[in-house]
Backbone:
């Protein structure tokens, strides 16, 4: 892996669990960069030998306690972790996995400060501080069949 000091010079592959229950999506408020303090989907790095779906379901359970069924990857987004001076520290490629809620009520854990269900309308009105692309990814997941 190429590095320059503490800067990683290649994208890091990670997942986000886009979990749907009765027409709403589950979001967590992030504790750590990138996007600390913003609302986004539960997720994190894929462990060596782990499938994309398994990683999404593991991260969902670790951050919220919610159990779900993986319905497959459906899009990918970029997330950039920048220093205060604008220098790019890390580049994440986040693979979105659509998940169907099975059980559990969300309780924030691991690196999540809060966890809640949100309707798409609350994401699209711009009043909730979310990571870039959250509303678009949620809309895509909610409009898919299955």
Residues:
């Amino acid at each position: 892996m190429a590095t320059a000091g503490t800067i990683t010079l290649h994208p890091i592959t990670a997942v986000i669990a886009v979990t749907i229950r009765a027409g709403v999506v589950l979001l967590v408020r992030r504790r750590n960069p990138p996007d600390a303090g913003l609302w986004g989907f539960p997720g994190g790095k894929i462990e060596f030998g782990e499938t994309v779906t398994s990683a999404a379901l593991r991260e969902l359970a670790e951050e919220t306690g919610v159990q779900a069924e993986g319905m497959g990857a459906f899009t990918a987004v970029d997330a950039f972790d920048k220093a205060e001076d604008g220098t790019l520290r890390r580049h994440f490629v986040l693979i979105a996995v659509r998940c169907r809620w099975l059980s559990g009520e969300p309780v924030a854990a691991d690196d999540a400060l809060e966890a809640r269900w949100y309707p798409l309308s609350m994401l699209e009105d711009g009043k909730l501080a979310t990571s870039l692309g959250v509303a678009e990814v949620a809309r895509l997941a909610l409009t898919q069949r299955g």
